[in-house]
Amino acid sequence: MGTKGLLYSGGVESAYLLQTLDGPIQPVYVSYGFPWEGYERDTARRHVEAVENARELVEIEVRHDDPARLRRDAEADEKGFTYVHGRSSSLLTNAAVELSAMGVTDIYEGTLASGDDRFRDSSPEFYESIERALSLGVDDDIEIHLPLYGAEKAEVVAEFIEMDGEIALEETVSCIVTDDPEGCGDCYKCDERERALDRAQQYL
After folding, report:
1. Which of 9, 67, 178, 198 could form a Cys-Cys staple with 33, CB 3.0–4.6 A?
2. What are phi and psi of 174, to 5 degrees?
3. Which residues of the chain have pLDDT under 50?
4. In sequence order, what E strands does the chain have?
5. What burial letters (b/e) apply to 179-195, b meaning 16+ CB within 10 Å?
6. CATH number of the domain encompassing residue 99
């Protein structure tokens, strides 16, 4: 069975995949120099060490003179959201180059996104296009797998709780503001996590 590459952040979705994908897994963490990445990366290392079929975490550092230039904040519904400019393209490109050099061409990502107007780089068209471009770029057949695409976060949280695997739900990270293990409690990621925890009860 071939090795599966996994974009790994230590968040709920990637931690769920780390524990449920079968066969050998090669997790990859890509950092940009944001404040929350120190704790996130340390958490990712601990997770990977706890899962038997996971290989040592590959860490890629993307350097920018000013990472803050990549950060975008906007208002959406009751909470603002934050995203990193071009991050999906950069994550997949850097991971694919490294993984293909290791002989790994199946790349898994834990996105749930449905491709709404906020995140155009989570649309099916984006993934189809970048899969083709990366295959040409590394001269290999890159396949991007999105096993959680279209699922609700609450469903994944409920399955995570019932799974009772090597990584506990409370050990995962979500915050994109601080490296405090408790999170800031105010960013849209913290809010998304809290709402998912509440709604997960209907699936348990």
Report:
1. 67
2. -135, -30
3. 76-79, 115
4. 4-7, 25-31, 58-61, 71-76, 79-84, 106-108, 143-145
5. beeebeeebbbbbbbee
6. 3.40.50.620
Q: For position 71, what pLDDT does the model report?
A: 75
| CA-to-CA dists, residue 26 to 20, 58, 83, 155, angstroms | 13, 8, 25, 25
Residue 3 CA from chain centroid, whole number: 18
State whether the Cα torsion 191-194-198-201 is positive or negative.
positive
Are 5 and 106 in contact by the 8 Å Cβ rule? The answer is yes
Contacts of 71 (CB under 8 A, 6+ apart): 34, 82, 83, 84, 85
In the prediction, which pLDDT does 115 show?
Answer: 47
Residue 106 contacts residue 143 (beta carbons within 8 Å): yes
Supply the pLDDT for residue 31: 94
**How far apart are alpha carbons 108 and 90 in whole angstroms?**
15
Distance (Å, whole) CA 199 – CA 191: 12
Number of independent structural domains in the chain: 1
Strand order in the sheet with 106-108: 58-61, 25-31, 4-7, 106-108, 143-145
What's this model's pTM, rounded to 2 decimal places?
A: 0.91
Which domain, by its residues, includes 63?
4-203
